[in-house]
């Protein structure tokens, strides 16, 4: 349940229902968000104390207690950048606080998930190669001295990706540090310049005190090491996964400094990262002096100020810090995208043109290509008996569970010595391999279900195993059903390059439309997130299963968690090259220079093999070298964000809470006019006009508008030509959408608008929803 001042109309009913159920006054952890502090950007310790005391006083006055009791209830006081606190409250208290005029929102300390496919699918590997080693690296000096912070599971400081060999002194503006409170703590070096942990929100959720294993920023999970090294890891030669994909590992900004903010802990019911901790980490990172924050986690889409990540990102972006986040792994269903605030940079995931291939050879001579990063191969080059998992069930289970190779479903008597076919879904992909191995299988073929389509993932399996697509899976099942004695062989893993088509969208990547604010298209862009090799913890094996005794410094993972830090690294490069660009300008440069075609020059495909849409890839696939010289940008100032909030229904009084100076809401301002680099028109009928402005960041020149109209509308741009005499000049234009006939079939249509001076192509996706 969430409370918000936005839903104040509903509040009386809300409170009524709360009162009815609050006989037990169950206490939960809540976040009370108060907006902006009145102290400036450099608060003194007196200011900070004053902020904390104001939180005690506010809570005490509202719940009718002493300051002492209020102090006991509050476990975080956000005093530096974010104004607010986290406290243990009952529902009645929370509802009462939400009504106070100085309170922006009150929301539950919700749990968030890391955005790998691991939680429902699991790990696998691949390589990192998609970021071109071209000129942006050189021009930006490999992101030298940009500081990238990462909110995640911490860091494995001994990883070679975080070696400080050859790095100069730490930039003097840095105010962060490494927490080394226990033997398990993390020490800084000139590369890894910060490592802090935030666990009070987790503690409040699980209840009870945490022991010393929770007092370190050290990564015992692997996810944070992987994402941080993808964003800013150093060059590490001869990195491989069991010898596969041998090459130089590198982050997007190899010369950047990095800082880990550990906010994710061992999962409780799938949730591992809590809003109260996420907000504390944002508040700290902003003051520490990061330039970029990479956040590969999220929850269900929620209202902008009832989501700790969105609140934290709002304050970061207001201070000029770019916040890059993952779109989520709940695809391919529509409306699943999370981290949907307009101040966040939201990243989908797609494939690379490299595969770790391991083929299935069937007894009838068919060869099917699969993906694997298994650490072992079959012992002899012979055909082994092949069986579907469905046929090897123990008495106390169902065929539906057995085909998935869930724990305790496979009968060793029927499996021993065979290659077993398991279906994707429910348990981790590598766990299916583990179950097959425990039951005595010599190998496993992992077949996609219909939803996961043609997306196959190379995983660090414990036994010879390969992952095949849905159509090939059907071929295998048909062969098993028709052959008298079905047999198969699985070839050893080999690395293949130049795979076509690539990229295509990963099925897991969360899809638009944006359910919170449909006029902001999300995700913003896509980047590689399938089978990505990066640094790993040496605390657990690559399957993260206790029984996995293998330890490897690099592994492959997949998810929007992996695509997000690719973009964080690229943002780091652009910040080094253009230190004066705002987060919105950086984002615009990356979005308007993206491509929507794959390496066969055809439109990018979805995992279903159909043409992908902006609901999957936003503006398209990231192209770092183009992003450094975009020509024009759709820039945004803090006032634009405030106007956006006005249009979202926050009134003048609320504006005072978001800004340390008064902000007058414009008389007429439509959310659709927010100067976003993509254009989305929800609920269109008849005629709709929206406005935008572009800023020249290149040489003087004349840009002409080129439109590809979405089906069912004609689009006109006015003026259709813009002349810029100098850099920094800004020009406005309007885009009008007119329905071609009165009746359009309901649904979405896609097109694009491109401004071009012949050299630069500034492209924005157009999305129209016919009402
Ligand atoms: C710390 O607490 C966790 C979770 O309650 C537990 O799994 C772990 O064994 C404890 N570790 C120590 C050293 O007590
Ligand atoms: C990786 O490649 C390097 C140089 O090409 C070679 O010396 C090394 O043995 C290779 N490592 C593995 C694990 O294949
Ligand atoms: C499945 O994989 C095979 C390679 O074994 C490929 O030829 C086929 O096109 C793929 N199917 C789809 C739907 O992508
Ligand atoms: C079936 O029973 C066995 C033996 O009691 C047990 O180990 C296994 O977990 C059970 N399987 C299921 C799916 O309940």
Automatic annotation (TrEMBL):
GO terms for molecular function: serine-type endopeptidase activity. Residues 402-474 form the PA domain. SUPFAM superfamilies: PA domain (SSF52025), Subtilisin-like (SSF52743). Residues 29-115 form the Inhibitor I9 domain. Residues 673-768 form the Subtilisin-like protease fibronectin type-III domain. The active site is at 152 (charge relay system), 223 (charge relay system), 561 (charge relay system). Pfam families: fn3_6, Inhibitor_I9, PA, Peptidase_S8. One of its GO terms (biological process) is proteolysis. Keywords: Glycoprotein, Hydrolase, Protease, Serine protease, Signal. CDD domains: PA_subtilisin_like (cd02120), Peptidases_S8_3 (cd04852). Gene3D superfamilies: 2.60.40.2310, 3.50.30.30, Peptidase S8 propeptide/proteinase inhibitor I9, Peptidase S8/S53 domain. PANTHER family: PROPROTEIN CONVERTASE SUBTILISIN/KEXIN. Belongs to the peptidase S8 family. This is Subtilisin-like protease SBT5.4 isoform X1.
């Amino acid at each position: 349940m969430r409370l918000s001042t936005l839903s104040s109309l509903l509040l009386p009913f809300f409170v009524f229902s709360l009162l009815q159920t609050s006989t037990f006054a169950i206490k939960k952890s809540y976040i009370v968000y108060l907006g902006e502090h009145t102290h400036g950007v450099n608060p003194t310790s007196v200011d900070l104390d004053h902020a904390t005391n104001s939180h005690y006083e506010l809570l005490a006055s509202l719940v009718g207690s002493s300051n002492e009791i209020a102090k006991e209830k509050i476990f975080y006081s956000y005093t530096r950048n974010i104004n607010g606190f986290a406290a243990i409250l009952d529902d009645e208290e929370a509802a009462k606080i939400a009504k106070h005029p100085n309170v922006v929102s009150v929301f539950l300390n919700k749990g968030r998930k890391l955005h790998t496919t691991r939680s429902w699918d699991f790990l696998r590997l691949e390589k990192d190669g998609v970021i071109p080693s071209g000129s942006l690296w050189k021009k930006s000096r490999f992101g030298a001295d940009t500081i990238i912070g990462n909110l995640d599971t911490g860091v494995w400081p001994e990883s070679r990706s975080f070696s400080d060999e050859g790095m100069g002194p730490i930039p003097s503006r840095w105010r962060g540090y490494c927490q080394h409170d226990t033997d398990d703590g993390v020490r800084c070096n000139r590369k890894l310049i910060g490592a802090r942990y935030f666990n009070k929100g987790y503690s409040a959720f699980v209840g009870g005190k945490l022991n010393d294993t929770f007092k370190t920023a050290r990564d015992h999970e692997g996810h944070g090491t992987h994402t941080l090294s993808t964003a800013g890891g150093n060059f590490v030669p001869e990195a491989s996964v069991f010898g596969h994909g041998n090459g130089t590992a590198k982050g997007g900004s190899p010369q950047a400094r990095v800082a880990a903010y550990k906010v994710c802990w061992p999962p409780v019911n799938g949730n591992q990262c809590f809003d109260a901790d996420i907000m504390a980490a944002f508040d700290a990172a902003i003051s520490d002096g990061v330039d970029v924050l990479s956040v590969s986690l999220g929850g269900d889409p929620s209202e902008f100020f009832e989501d700790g990540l969105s609140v934290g990102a709002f304050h970061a972006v207001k201070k000029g810090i770019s916040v890059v986040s993952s779109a989520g792994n709940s695809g391919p269903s529509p409306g699943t995208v999370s981290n949907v605030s307009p101040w966040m940079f939201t990243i989908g995931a797609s494939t690379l043109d490299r595969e770790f291939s391991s083929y299935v050879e069937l007894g009838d001579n068919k060869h099917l290509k699969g993906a694997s990063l298994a650490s072992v191969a079959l012992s002899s080059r012979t055909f082994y008996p092949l069986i579907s998992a469905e046929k090897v069930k123990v008495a106390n289970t169902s065929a539906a569970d057995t085909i998935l190779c869930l724990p305790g479903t496979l009968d060793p008597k029927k499996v021993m010595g065979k290659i077993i076919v398991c279906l994707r879904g429910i348990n981790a992909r590598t766990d299916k391999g583990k179950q097959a191995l425990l039951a005595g299988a010599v190998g496993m073929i992992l077949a996609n279900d219909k939803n996961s389509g043609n997306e196959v993932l190379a995983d660090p399996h414990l036994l010879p195993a390969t992952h095949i697509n849905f159509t090939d899976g059907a071929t295998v099942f048909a062969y098993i059903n028709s052959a008298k004695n079905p047999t198969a062989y699985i070839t050893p893993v080999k690395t293949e390059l130049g795979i076509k088509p690539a990229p295509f969208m990963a099925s897991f990547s969360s899809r638009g439309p944006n359910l919170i604010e449909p006029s902001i298209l999300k995700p913003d862009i896509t980047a590689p997130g399938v089978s990505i090799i990066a640094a790993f913890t040496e605390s657990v094996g690559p399957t993260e299963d206790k029984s996995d005794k293998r330890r490897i410094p690099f592994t492959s993972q997949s998810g929007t968690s992996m695509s997000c830090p690719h973009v964080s690294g690229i943002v780091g490069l652009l910040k080094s090259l253009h230190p004066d660009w705002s987060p919105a300008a950086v984002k615009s440069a990356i979005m308007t220079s993206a491509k929507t075609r794959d390496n066969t020059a055809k439109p990018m495909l979805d995992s279903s093999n159909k043409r992908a849409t902006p609901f999957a890839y936003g503006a398209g696939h990231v192209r770092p070298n183009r992003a450094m010289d975009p020509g024009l940008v759709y820039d945004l100032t803090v006032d634009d964000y405030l106007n956006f909030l006005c249009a979202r229904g926050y009134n003048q009084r609320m504006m005072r809470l978001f800004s340390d100076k008064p902000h007058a809401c414009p008389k007429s301002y439509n959310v659709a006019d927010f100067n976003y680099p993509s254009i989305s028109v929800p609920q269109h009928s008849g005629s709709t006009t929206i406005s935008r402005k572009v800023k020249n960041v290149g040489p003087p020149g004349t840009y002409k508008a080129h439109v590809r109209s979405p089906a069912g509308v004609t689009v006109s741009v006015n003026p259709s030509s813009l002349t810029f005499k100098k850099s920094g000049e800004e020009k406005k234009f309007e885009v009008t959408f007119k329905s071609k006939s009165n009746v359009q079939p309901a649904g979405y249509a896609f097109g694009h608008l491109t401004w071009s001076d012949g050299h630069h192509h500034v492209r924005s996706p157009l999305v129209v929803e016919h009402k």
